[in-house]
Design brief:
Layout: H1 6-23, H2 35-46, H3 74-89, H4 92-111, H5 118-134, H6 144-152, E1 157-161, H7 167-174, E2 178-180, E3 200-205, E4 212-216, E5 225-228, H8 260-273, E6 276-280, H9 287-299, E7 304-308, H10 319-328, E8 340-343, H11 347-354, E9 367-373, E10 381-387, E11 392-402, E12 409-412, E13 414-415, H12 418-426, E14 435-440, E15 445-450, E16 458-466, E17 473-478
Parallel strand pairs: 1-3, 2-3, 6-7, 7-8
Antiparallel strand pairs: 4-5, 9-10, 10-15, 11-12, 11-14, 11-16, 13-15, 16-17
Length: 485
Amino acid sequence: MHRAPGWVRALNFVYGAMVGYQSEDGSNPRQAVNIERLISALRLLQDAKGHEVAPFVASWKPGALGVGTVELDRSLGRNAVKAVNEAVTKNAVFAERPMLDAIADIARSVAGGGVSTAFEEAERHLLNDLSVMLGRIESVSYLTPLAALAREQRGGLDVLTLNYDLSVEKMCSETATAIDCGIERWQPGRRLIWSPEDGRINLYKLHGSLDWVQRSQGDQTSAPAIELATTDEKRVGADGLRAPWIVVGEREKLATDGPTLALLRGAEDALDRATHLAVIGYSFGDAHINAVIRNWMLGDIDRTISIVDPGWDPLNPGEFAAAILKAYGADSRLHRAPRLAPIVEIAATGLSAALHPLQGGAASASAQVQVEDLGQESNLVRICLRLETPDIFGLIANVEETDSGQSRTHNIAVATSQHAYNSLETARTLANRRVSVDRWRKNEELVIYAAPSNLANTFVKIRGYPVDSARIADFRVSLGAERCD
């Protein structure tokens, strides 16, 4: 039977171990592995014994210290042969120590995985495949609003990206837009500075790029040389694998060797110049980037964020997104104007709106209404509202009645069920003046019970914020009309 190469078996071992670990407690094994976690694991296992937690690992998982046949250093074999020869040709008593030392060296090497490079090879092949996949760029027309804004506003446009691909560069080429990636000016020990320029896009590729290459390695006294590849240069190593300079993996995002920190400082400078940040395609998975966003928002109360995410769910947006939504999202209960706006669309349709600062005022919202009289004995009406526009979050609904012949309006008691309303009346409190709902979905019914004295002068006042807008929705639905105002 054909035996897979060592690097394939190493990759299978790591992937299988991560999936198995994730599923031990019943968690979804499909969520165990992403490309960055996989590469981080391969890099850790290249020097598992040298890792900082190694002294605390009682027993490494079989295979973790070397996959497949161990490749022993040839000098170990030569030492063993020499010791045996001395035992045969000389007095065995004097050859005992060299033989024991040689055997001990072999045993230690086997226990530590020898000098197997399977994990290193697996990483190189994985990075090569990643580079090939990301190098396949199709249409980039959806990015043209970036070029339009660079021409529209003074100082051009700063674009911060965690991607390695060349999509922005291709769009700039197709639209004849000037672009500055900064890597040509990077010099170790000097700050990397981008200057604002009308019509130009300053591109900060914080995790490297497919067209950056490393010319030389760094050491204690010299920094690595990382440059933009020439147009006709083929980025292929001696083993036939591509080797772009990109920062991949969960533990390497703040690598100190290379331009990583200089790029991050430049990005912070760009944010200092901005009052609005558009976030597209970022799931808030990098702690150091989240810290930059957090600090930027804390620096000025006029700074705002738009988040383009077709799968956005304010009830379950992720830990960091939930925190900034709570801190900066529109809140009808607090009468707080928003500093954060989710745009529930794909980048192709939502990018243009995301690039512009948040607008104040009220969002457009409407609902259909039906009113059912429950009889003179109860004096109650059942108000059924159906939302026509996108989902509303943080909903507050009040039923208000205007006194006949007067302009004075007052809230009347409401409840979400007839039994709940009767309980209020029995307790003679009638204290419940509003209904609160976390999420009111489009086409979903919202039922409210109330006892107005005159339907013609009664309406439902609704406040909340739509899922596709940062502006608070504030509208009224008349109980004497078929549709809202």
